[in-house]
Amino acid sequence: MNFPFEKKVITESDTENLAMEFAEVINPGDLIVLNGDLGSGKTFFIKKVISKFGIYNASSPTFSLVNEYSGQFKIYHFDFYRINNKTELLDIGINDYFNNEEAIIFIEWGNLFPEILPNQRIEINIILNEDFSRGVKFKKYDR
Question: pTM of this prediction?
């Protein structure tokens, strides 16, 4: 997979295959931001990606803000949906997470606080189409 990359997925199986393909190109130190409307499949996609690393108990961190998993790699899974301001993120030590080169970080709803995101990241935008298919767009930022 080379970036930018775009694909239409129709079934859960299509999404799972895309997640497995994406899992092949990420490594510890990577930060992945997923954006999309409610129900677009952000958490489902993350669950499938991290299953490639031996983690099968993933769930949405909407209420806990961050879930930590250990498998082949350390995984931090954030959800910014219920965050009110960037001070809340700073208070939990978000920059310490961002500086952990031994972990892969996933952030759902990162578009709510773009000013706090590191310049180096991969963004995935999931667009839910009227026919319930999804357009999945990947872009890598290296600034």
Answer: 0.94
Report yes or no: 138 and 4 within 8 Å, Cβ to Cβ. yes
- Lookup: tokens for 58: 């993933």
* Residue 64: per-residue pLDDT: 78
Class of residue 24 by CB neighbours under 10 A (exposed 0-12, middle 13-18, buried 19+)? exposed
Burial of 52 (0-12, 13-18, 19+ CB in 10 A): middle
What domains appear along the chain, each with residue ranges and CATH number? 27-125 (3.40.50.300)
* Cβ atoms within 10 Å, residue 113: 16
CA distances from 131 to 10, 13, 15, 55, 85 (A): 9, 16, 15, 31, 35
